[in-house]
Write a structure and sequence with these properties.
By secondary structure, this protein is an alpha+beta fold. The longest helix has 20 residues.
């Protein structure tokens, strides 16, 4: 069995389009032989292959590994010649070009652009950089793996569609470049494997900044030292009988290479491991149940602290009864998940914002994950962070503010509050989702369960003024492949197959997706069954 549900920003139309691609063998223009193609799965517009799917012998899925493949460099301008910047070998000229942008009804915008040995100069076009840098003396340049010209990701995609085994699949993925993906695969021969595929820079052992802040561009120790060899990338051949990834750290403590310091918290992976190990033998139904799971281990970790809170509020007794019975399942139809989510929001605002400043908090909240910080503060009973109150009083005060918000937004009866009302999965249309009169027609939304830490993820940005708990980042598709009977495979995603807004297929999968249902994913039309019933009108 192989299950895949990559979490991405939701959009309408969906980024995926499911299709079967079939072609005979042939040869490229240079005579290179090309094998026959017969593959089914999720495609992306503009790419002539199935990105996530299966052939007749192997199935594969991706999720983002999340390595740090971008570094900013502070480049010093030569005071005697502004056309030069400092390098370890002395002053060198900027690479320069001019871009002309034609604007309707206005004069052309002529934009001079510079680049250094590291990459494009961002501060030429990013005005806020002038607020922190003297641009007469310094500029900021970006080094990013995806800007390199040796990107052969398309070749890797074409080759995967001809794979007949796990070994052949990973051999096909060797040219894969960016962005690095945690690839899981299984074949009809019984092989399974996880491996992180893609380009990751090697940083010098003396690099003490490691991309956390801009590095001095004239110091060679901050230059990249090449690429991580594919053989040394994180991988697992399934010795336990299963492999899983959920954006968590995929490197052992003694792993010799630096990939990133920004791994996702491991709650989703831990829950997947629990569910896999709880069942001796899995099938399609159990894989689907794992993808549908909305028990939040992160919620269970903080739940004792909100239960102990003693807020002075008219709704306190009723709400504490709800929280006492709360099991951490982020069900769209329950009130307790909503109370808990608003409490954690208010707690972060009350505890963290005063110490880092409102401006920095607003700029980072939702983009940075403060949940681990809150867990540590409450579990340590950290008086410094909680001052001038105790941590218990901070918790109670946050619950009072949360109840005031909830009462104002959803009425005075907590029994009628619903997590799904505050947490709809919103697939926003580009661009009409930004037009108030058109958004109701083009956007696709549906009440959804989960949070950022559930297997069935429903990630929200609590700092988003447009909707603090709106689910904008979730399973962009779900697929379950049965390698014993590939025609028994299933898929779903959150909108529909059509991109035409008035088509009945524009949003017809949303309710099924929200309820963790599926549709058949079959290559053999003869095995598809259709039932048409004509019912006389009364």
């Amino acid at each position: 069995m192989l299950a895949n549900d990559p979490h991405l920003g939701l959009s309408a139309p969906a980024i995926w389009y499911f299709a079967r691609l079939k072609a005979p063998s042939g040869s490229a223009a240079d005579g290179t032989p090309i094998g026959a193609l017969d593959v089914i799965g999720a495609t992306l517009p503009g790419l002539p292959f199935v990105v996530l799917g299966r052939t007749d012998s192997v199935a594969w899925g991706f999720t983002n590994t999340g390595p740090d493949v971008q570094d900013l460099y502070l480049e010093q301008i030569n005071p005697a010649d502004p056309g030069q910047y400092r390098t370890p070998e002395g002053w060198m000229p900027f690479a320069q070009r001019t871009v002309t942008i034609r604007v309707k009804g206005q004069p052309d915008v002529v934009l001079p652009l510079r680049a250094t040995r590291h990459g494009p100069v961002l501060s030429d076009v990013q005005k806020p950089h002038a607020e922190v840098l003297d641009l007469r003396k310094y500029v900021l340049a970006l080094r990013w793996s995806a800007l390199d010209a040796d990107n052969q990701t398309v070749l890797a995609g074409l080759q995967t569609n001809q794979a007949k085994s796990v070994d052949a699949l990973f051999e096909a993925l060797e040219p894969y470049h960016s962005p690095m993906q945690s690839v899981v695969a299984a074949d009809v021969h019984g092989s399974i494997r996880f491996k992180a595929m893609g380009k990751v820079p090697l940083r010098h052992a003396d690099n003490d900044i490691r991309g956390v802040a801009p590095s001095p561009g004239w110091d060679a120790r901050y230059d990249w030292q090449g690429w991580l060899p594919s053989a040394q990338a994180p991988q697992d051949d399934g010795g336990r009988g299963w492999v899983a990834t959920a954006n968590q750290r995929v490197t052992a403590p003694d792993y010799p290479h630096y990939l990133t310091q920004d791994w996702a918290l491991p709650y989703r992976f831990d829950r997947i491991a629990q569910l896999i190990e709880a069942t001796p033998r899995h099938d399609g139904a159990s894989m689907q149940a794992i993808q549908a799971d909305v028990l939040s281990l992160a919620t269970l970790r903080l739940l004792p602290h909100v239960r102990k809170a003693s807020p002075q509020h008219p709704l306190a007794v009723q709400v504490q009864a709800l929280l006492h019975d709360f099991d951490g399942v982020m069900d769209a139809h329950r009130a307790a998940p909503l109370v808990f989510a608003v409490w954690t929001d208010e707690l972060a605002r009350g505890v963290i914002a005063p110490h880092i400043g409102e401006d920095r908090f607003k700029a980072t909240y939702g983009k940075r994950d403060y949940r681990a910080a809150l867990e540590g503060i409450l579990e340590r009973d950290d008086a410094w962070w909680c001052q001038p109150l105790s941590c218990a009083d901070q918790s109670a005060a946050a619950l009072v503010r949360a109840l005031d918000r909830l009462q104002a937004d959803y009425g005075p009866d907590p029994a009628r509050w619903r997590w799904g009302d505050a947490h709809p999965a919103l697939s926003s249309h580009r661009p009409f989702g930004n037009v108030a009169l058109l958004a109701p027609y083009f956007d696709v939304n549906v009440p959804s369960p989960g949070d950022a830490y559930t297997v069935n993820a429903g990630q929200y940005n609590a700092g988003d003024a447009r909707g603090a708990f709106v689910n904008r980042h979730a399973a962009s598709l779900r697929a379950v492949y049965d390698l014993a009977d590939l025609e028994n495979s299933r898929f779903i995603y959150q909108t529909g197959q059509s991109g035409l807004v008035f088509s009945p297929r524009y949003r017809d999968m949303r309710a099924t997706w929200a309820q963790a249902g599926y549709r058949n994913l079959q290559r053999q039309p003869a095995r598809m069954q259709h039932d048409l019933r004509l019912v006389p009108a009364p």
